[in-house]
Amino acid sequence: MIRMATFISLKVLDIPRYQRLDMSSTVTYPEKQKYFIYGDSTRTIMSHVMSKLPDFQHTVTLSGRPHSLTETMLELGVMAEVEGVESPLKGEMVDGEIIQPLQKKLL
Questions:
Q1: What is the pLDDT of residues 53-97, one digit of tens each?
Q2: pTM of the entire structure?
């Protein structure tokens, strides 16, 4: 069998934020889920901020810029709590899978 090298090009779309996940036993889930919102004049992206394990990571595209964010704030990125997405993750699992708070609101 002859193996041929395959070259694949890729374009990095975003590196929105990096924060080391604190693995110490003193870390607790936040009372309200935290999100990082960023983007530009053509798109607004919201990414969940992980706090401890188990946790989840998801990124969604919003239909527009929240009215309270200026375009400069959006370009720099801001931390936010989404109204109504308040319950901590603890105990929110179905068949061993974490139910994401945004998904739970749609169920």
A1: 777 777 889 999 998 899 999 999 999 987 776 555 555 666 766
A2: 0.67
Do residues 38 and 45 lie in contact, with contact meaning Cβ atoms separated by under 8 Å? yes
Structure tokens at 31: 């009372």
Q: Which residue has the tokens 């401890």?
A: 52
Characterize the bridge pairing of strands 93-94 and 59-62: unpaired
Asked if 79 and 35 touch (Cβ cutoff 8 Å), the reply is yes
- Find, among 6, 73, 11, 10, the residue nearest to 37 by Cα: 73
Of 12, 90, 19, which is closest to residue 48 (Cα–Cα)? 19
